[in-house]
Structure formats: structure tokens, C-alpha cells
Amino acid sequence: MSHVAIVGGGIAGLSAAYELAKRSVPFQIFEASHRFGGIVETEHHDGFVMECGPDGWITEKPWARELAIELGLADDLIASNDATRITWIYRDGQLHAIPEGMRMMVPTNLNALRYSALFSQEAIEAYEREPSRAHELKQYAADHAGTDESVANFIRRHFGEEVTRTIAAPLLAGVFGGDVGTLSAEAVMPQFVSMEREHGSLINALTARTSANAQPVFTSLRNGLGTLIDSIVVTLPQQSQKLHHTVAAIKHENAHWHVEASGEWRAFDHLILATPAHVTRTLLSSIDTEAAALLDMPASSAVLVALAFTAEQSQNIQIPAGFGFLVPPKTQGSGLLAATFVDQKFPHRVPPGGRLLRAFFGSATAEQMQSETDAYIAAVAHAQLCDLLGTQLPEPSHTVVRRWPQSLPQYTVGHRARMRRLDERIALQPALTLLGNAYRGVGLPDLIRDGRATAASIAT
């Protein structure tokens, strides 16, 4: 009998498995598909490094970097090209640069706003008034302590409707595939909620921070994030890896967890469920109906399309400088939410002279695309990129299409309170832990942190 069962072979489950193996704790990790890594996957084609899921992580969160270094990947770490970091917003038929010094939708340089065509004069004036409203905003936070609100309401209170619609909505849709009208401010941007409680004004809070020790915004790996997955998997005992093993049911009997995988029941001392929320909900429904009900959360699907262009094809491609662009949700004629200029965001992604673009579809458009062919999806991505960039792109030399159904759980208003209640329910079950992007963060560093911390707790 193995000590620990891990159900789900994404980055959270793999991080737990890595830590258990490091501490010589016996385990088995069950993955229904043919490969480990979940949405973290990299393809290589003729010198192009094509990410099928996330392309990096937020540098200021240390846990992914720490793991990469432990795995011997220190020399493979690369930083985003922040010297040319510009993000564009599509508005009124044109791409407009987000002004310099913006942290998400909060400016640190009010002067830069005055030269931006992205905002109207009314929106710029709303930004300029926000620092003088610090006492009012801080008092609001004190009066509503312990309550949550939507991202839209939070941003609207500080900067008005135009800022909410023009920049907050596309930024959050590009990360969560969600609606700022329903996403939780407390769960999605806790740093800004804390700033309001302490300073009132978000602009005052950010400008008071020192930037002397500035880091690159994003970090990745030279040959793609798939390298991280491969490097973890080779550290795991072969007999512990159970690919093509779908877990159909779980139960707790005689002081052990019993897992039914591919028609066979096996017993374990501890159980880690590192599956998507809807899968975890199904497995828990026979164990704790209240816990299962708390996992009945909405999730958005995603579709990613990477389009590679050779050096010869790229000679006449006109792409603006920067990392890419965002499209406000429900923009007429576009289901695209974001595009990345991959070769400009990170080094070592294309052969000399090549270009690599990535298109991201979410929400209802991604749901509709799940059943479409790769050729159809690639054609839609190509057409919409041409339209939004205002140029005719050649047919790509290679495309990669990935569908990720229900991959983006929505942290709706009240999320943290629901997770606290879920933690209380799970604590009533002996030796059971839930991992994944539905609980305490969606980024790779958060999932790695939680996976390793869980395994360390079990080991000790």
C-alpha cells in the first residue's frame, strides 16, 4: 500500500509528487490523460517554441523560480523583454498603448496619462482626483470591512465607469476569462484591496513604493515551460506514475482512503485531489455533499492558437512594439480576448527573423469553439488577428491549437468566504487535501507553493 494518492497530474499534483519523492514518501499519482502537466505544455517546430498554455509566471512570486533552480534549470531561466514592454488595448477600431507606469489599471505616472489617446479627458480627470479622495476611500473600506465586492464596483469607486470598461475589463478577461461584474475584488486583486484599507488611494499607495529593486515582470524557461514538467517527471519513481488512469470514485473506510482507478480499488493513508473543481465536486459528492456544493463554481473555457511565421514570411509583417494587445469583452465582431507577440515578449522563442503570435479566446466564444476543428479555429484566429492588427498576415508556416474546457475557475464575489467554509468541511475528513487553481490562486507559482506545502505537511 502506498502512503499517498495524488489524483490529477497537473502542476499542483506534480509539485506535491516531487516533494513527496524528495522526502522518500511512497505515493501514486493518477492522471487520466496520456501526459502529465495539465495545461502546461510546449511544442517545438523548426526553431519555434510554442506554448500551448501559460507562457511564463509572475516574477515577484518566488515559488516557480525556486523549483526550477532545484531541478537544475537555473541556466534556462529567462526574463521578459521589459525594456520594450508595451501592452495595447483595442478601442474604437484602433490599438492604443496602455500608458507608461500603469500597474494593471492603476497609474504611477499621472503625466503619462495626459498624452494617452486611450482615455477621454473625463477619465483622466477621474484618475487625477483619486489621490485627493484618499480619506473618503479609506473610510469606505473601514465601513465595509469583511465584505466583498465585484472588481467592477471596486474600480468604479476609484476611477469611474470608463476606466472599468476600457482597461479593467480586458485585463481581467485576459487572465481569468471572466467578467469584472462578477469577479471578486478580494480574491482576484487582494493587493489593491489591502492598499485601499491602508492608504485609501491606490495611486498614492503605488507611488509610495520604491522601485529601486525592480524585477522583470515575467519569467519563463528558454525551451518552454514543458521543460519544467519534464524535469519534475524524471524525478518521480516510474512505478508511482499512473497515466491513462481515470479515478472514478473514492471512499473512506477502515482508516484508509480507497481510490477506484481504471476499475481497480487501491488503499492509501492520505488522499490529494488535484483535479479541476468540477471533477473534484463529483468525487466528493459521495463523501460530503456540503463540500461538493461549495465547489459548484462557474468555470470558463479557453482556446489558444499559436501561429508561426518564418523569416521569409515575416518580412512584410507589421506588428507594433510590445508584448501584445487586449480586446474588451463583447467588442463587436471579435471573440478574441488577447494576443501575444511572443517573439517580442520573450527571447529564444523563434528562429532568426521569425515571428510567433498567440491568440486567446475565452468565455462563450471558447465554449463554442470546443467542438470545432483545428483548421477552423486557426482560420478564425488568423482572420481576427488580421482585422484587429489592421494588416494582412500571410498563412502561417505552422499552427498549434489547444482547447482547455472549464480550465479557468471564476473567483466570483464571496469566493474567499466560500473557500474558508470549504476548508472547514475538508478539515473534518481525515488526511484529505484539495489542490488546484480553483482555491487560492491561478498562477503557476501559487499552485507549486500549495502542492509542495501539502506534501511537506504530509511528510512531517
Q: Describe the sheet with the most strands.
A: 7 strands, mixed
At the first level of CATH, the class of the largest domain is: Alpha Beta
Question: How many domains is the backbone divided into?
Answer: 3
Could you give me the name of the CATH homologous superfamily of the largest domain? FAD/NAD(P)-binding domain
Largest beta sheet: strand ordering: 8-7-18-19-20-17-21
The unreliable regions are none
Mean pLDDT: 94
Shape: globular
CATH architecture of the largest domain: 3-Layer(bba) Sandwich
Topology:
Blueprint lengths: L3 E4 L3 H12 L4 E5 L10 E4 L2 E4 L5 E2 L4 H8 L6 E3 L7 E5 L2 E4 L4 E2 L2 E2 L2 H4 L7 H9 L4 H10 L7 H9 L1 H16 L8 H4 L1 H10 L2 H6 L10 E4 L4 H8 L7 E3 L3 E7 L2 E6 L2 E5 L1 E4 L3 H8 L4 H6 L4 E11 L1 H4 L9 E3 L9 E6 H4 L9 E8 H7 L4 H16 L8 E12 L5 H13 L4 E3 L9 H16 L1
Parallel strand pairs: 1-2, 1-16, 2-12, 7-18, 16-22
Antiparallel strand pairs: 3-4, 5-11, 6-11, 7-8, 9-10, 13-14, 14-15, 17-20, 17-21, 18-19, 19-20
